[in-house]
Amino acid sequence: MHTTTEPVLRVSGLSARIGDLSLVRDVGFEVHRGRTLAVVGESGSGKSITAAAVMGILPPQIKAEGSVFFDGTELLGEPARRRRARGGAEIGYVFQEPMSALHPLLRIGTQMIRPLRHHLGLSRGEARDRALELLEQVGLGGERKVLDAYVHELSGGMRQRVMIAMAISCGPRLLLADEPTTALDPTVQQQILRLLVRLREELDLALVLISHDLGLVARYSDEVLVMYDGRVVEQGLTAQIIEQPAQPYTRALIDAAPRLGRRVDRLPTIDRAVLDQTRAMAGGV
Amino acid sequence: MTNYLLKRLGALLPTVAVPMVLLFVMLRLAPGDPAAAIAGDSATSEEIAEVRTRLGLDASLWEQFLTWLGRVVRLDFGNSLFADQAVSGLVAEHALVTVQLTVLALAVAVLIGPALGIAAGTRRHGLLDRVLVFGSSVGIALPSFWLAVLLIAVFGVVWQVFPVAGYVSFTEDPVLFLHHLALPAISLGLLEAATLFRYSRAGVLDSLHQPFVTTARSMGLPERTVIRKYVFRAAVVPMVTVVGLTTGSLMGGAVVTESIFSIPGLGQLLLTAVQRRDYPVIEGCIFFIAVVYVLLNLVIDLLYSLLDPRIRY
C-alpha cells in the first residue's frame, strides 16, 4: 500500500478446515518490511489459526489451503522438512502464554542457545554471548542470571521478553506475535508492544500482531485486518479504520473496548443483529 | 533441604514400626507351633513344652512382646530358631542375592520399556505402535512365574543356552553369575518393562502437544532434537515414580521367581521361615523389606526435585 516493493508475506485465499468444519475461509493480506499488520477479532474468529497456518504449526488434523507466499516462495505444499527449517531462521513466532510456551524443566539459556547453534552454526560459547546480547536487546540487559533461570522463576513480562528474544534470535524477516500481551498486566502490555515495534524498526521486520483488543494494538500498527467467524470483515490503514470504520462490526469492536476516564455501568456488547449481518456479509464475499 | 531430610528420616521410624508390630501379632495368632517343629515328629508333649520354655514361647503375649520390643529397638533380631545362625547375617546374605536380581531385572525393564515407549509414542497408530501396545497388554496381564516357566522350557530345556536353576555369586565368577541370573532377571524385568512402556508412551503422547514443544518446533529445530531434548525431558519426570514403584514390585516378584529358579535369595529365606514358623527370621526379612521400601520412596522424592526445578524441599 505505501510501497512498491514486494511484500514479505502475501496470503491469499487461505482456508483452514478440520474435517467438514471450516475454521478460516478465504483470508488474504500482505505485510511489508518495517510495517505492522494488526489482525483483530474475538475468540474463535480464526486469527490464531491464520497465524499458525502461515507458520506451518497447525495441529495435524487441521488442513490449510490457498496461498502463503513468503519472500518469493509458496509455503503451502512445501515439504514439511523445508517448512520446519524456516522456523526461527526466517519466520519468528511469539506465543500467547510464555509460561507454557517455554520448557518448564530447561534453563532459559539452554532453550535460547539450541536454535542459535542449529541455525547459525555458533559454538556453545558464541551462542551464549549472542543470547546475552539478545536479552539486552529486549530490555533484559544486565540480567545475566536470566540465562541460568527457569521459566517459573521469571515475572510475566520477563518471560515474554525472553520469548521475543528467542523469536528474533536467528534473524527472521517476519515476526508473528499471537496475542503476545494477553497474559500480561496492562502496563507491561504497553511495554511489550513498544518493544515489538522497536524491534520491527531496528531489524526491519514485517510484524503481524494478533489481538482481540483493537484499541490496544491500533496505536502500534500501520494496517488492520478485522476477522469474524473465520472471515475477513474489514481491512485497511489503521488510522482510517479507527476514524471511519466501514462495517458496523468494526465500529462495535472499537466501542466495546473499555476506556480510562469513561464511566460505564455495563460494558457495551455487540448487537446480535450486527453479528448476523456481519456473518452474512463476510460469507457473501 | 537438610530439614526435609531429617523429617523424612524421622518418619522412617513409625513407617517401619507399624508393619513390625502387626507382624508380631499376626505371627503369634497364626496356627502352627515352632516348638513342635523343632522337637520333631516323635517328640513327647513334655519335650515340646521344654523347647517352648527354652524359646520363651510359654510366656504371656505381653511379656513376649516386651522382650521382643527390647531386642528390636536395638536392631537385634536374635538367632534363627532352626539353624544356629544370627538373623542379621542370614538376612544380609540372602538380601544381597535378591538385590542383585532386582537390579538386573530393573536394568532389563529400564533399558527396554522407555525406549520402546518413545518409539511407539512418536509413531502413534503405526504398525510398531500397535504391535507394542498389544504386546504390553499381554505383558501386563501375564504373571511373571508363567513367563519364567516358559523361558525355562525354551531356553533351558529345548535350546539349553541358560541353566534352569541355581546361583553363582558374583565374586566367584561374574560370567556364571550373569549366566544364572539371566533368565530370572528377564522374566521379572520384561513384564515390568511392559508397565514402563505404557507410562512412557503415555508421557510422550502427552508432551508431544505441549505448547513448549510447539515452540521448539516453531524455532525450526529438527523433530529428532525436539523429541530427544524437549519431549523426552518432560516425559521422564513422572516415570521416576513408576520406576520406584516398579522396584518395589520387582522385590516382591523376586520371591516367586527365586523359588522357581532355586535362587537362595530373601524370598526363599522368607518362604522357608514362614513354613517353619521361624519367627525371628520372618521378622528380620520383613524389617529389611520395610526399610528398603521407605528409603526407596525417599530416593524417588529426592530424584524428583533433581529432575524438576519447580520442586524444592
UniProtKB/TrEMBL annotation, chain A:
CDD domains on file: ABC_NikE_OppD_transporters
UniProt keyword annotations, A-Z: ATP-binding, Cell inner membrane, Cell membrane, Membrane, Nucleotide-binding, Translocase, Transport
PROSITE patterns recorded: ABC_TRANSPORTER_1 (PS00211), ABC_TRANSPORTER_2 (PS50893)
Keyword Cell membrane (UniProt): yes
MF (Gene Ontology): ATP binding; ATP hydrolysis activity
Pfam assignment, any one: ABC_tran
The keyword Oxidoreductase appears for this protein: no
Topological relation to the membrane, as annotated: Peripheral membrane protein
Major subcellular location class: membrane
Bilayer-crossing regions: none
Localization of this protein: Cell membrane
Record's GO cellular component terms: plasma membrane
Domain of life: Bacteria
Domain (ABC transporter) ranges: 9-254
One GO biological process term: peptide transport
Family: Belongs to the ABC transporter superfamily.
Protein name: Peptide/nickel transport system ATP-binding protein
Annotated source species: Lentzea waywayandensis
TrEMBL record, chain B:
Compartments reported by the entry: Cell membrane
Record-level GO BP terms: transmembrane transport
Keyword Cell membrane: yes
Tree of life domain: Bacteria
Gene3D superfamilies: MetI-like (1.10.3720.10)
Family to which the UniProt record says this protein belongs: Belongs to the binding-protein-dependent transport system permease family.
UniProt name for this protein: Peptide/nickel transport system permease protein
Lineage: Bacteria, Bacillati, Actinomycetota, Actinomycetes, Pseudonocardiales
